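ingest -> validate -> predict -> emit
validate: passed (alphabet ok, no gaps, 293 aa)
predict: started
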Amino acid sequence: MRRLVVALAVGAVMVVGVPLVGSSPAYGGVGAGDNSGGTVTVGASAGASGAGTPGGTGSGSPVSTSGGGGGTVCTDTVLTLNNALGPPPGATLPGSWYSITCTDSGGASTTETLWISQGSAPAPVPPVAPYTVALDADRSLQLPRPALSFDPPLAAVVNLPTWLWIDPDLWHPFSVSATVGGVTATATAVPVSVAWDMGDGASLSCPGPGAVYRPALSPSAQQTDCAYTYTMSSAGQPSADGNPNDGSFAVTASVVWDVSWTATGAPGGGALPSVETSSTARLRVLQIESVNG
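emit:
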């Protein structure tokens, strides 16, 4: 037992701050959020409080607490047996040995053994990894689902190009910030393309939201870089009324968002996993036959 205690005491002198380990990346939340693209600070802050009274029961008390949205929580335990061995060289008396365990919002933990002098500054918390804070922000991103539009608006026609577009108002960056201790990280999602699944087995990718078709303008006065031409009708596809002649294709539009992060209070920044938000709408495709007189 004494050998184990000695190892703890010696090891405590060598301890340095260890960055918290982040959990596996979590994609931004998908929903019909009303985030206008401004920065929103989520409750992920952590501050320090006292480490507990030296010579206490050793049952553990919180060293730092987190806000409502997550963050880092630390608990200290007095090491009574280590106290019997005395303080490390150069330590200020009176004081006590503590085991400090900190757990981040992803469930990862680090433990340090430290001598803390009575009346000194609050027990130190291991440095926060900015990437961990960035993941907290990423989890709080609320990205809107696209609203699909077509022209012709009521039904597409075989061999006639169909214009495709989504609501252009969502085509801007969305940002959320999270703060833990003195580190603030901001996750920003930027829309980069729209993937269309046309329901007939074909797909295409458009570099933007697509151009809104304006009936008041002549076709020659407007153009789009996002259109698709069906080569078969949707007859026989599922229909709401059970009539095979009213069948329609399930068309899905998926917005691809590139996500990056920056930090203040600590160096860091870079890419996070991309995110997709999707919606599906049904589209009838008609076969129109011409008759020669």
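The longest strand covers residues 249-264.
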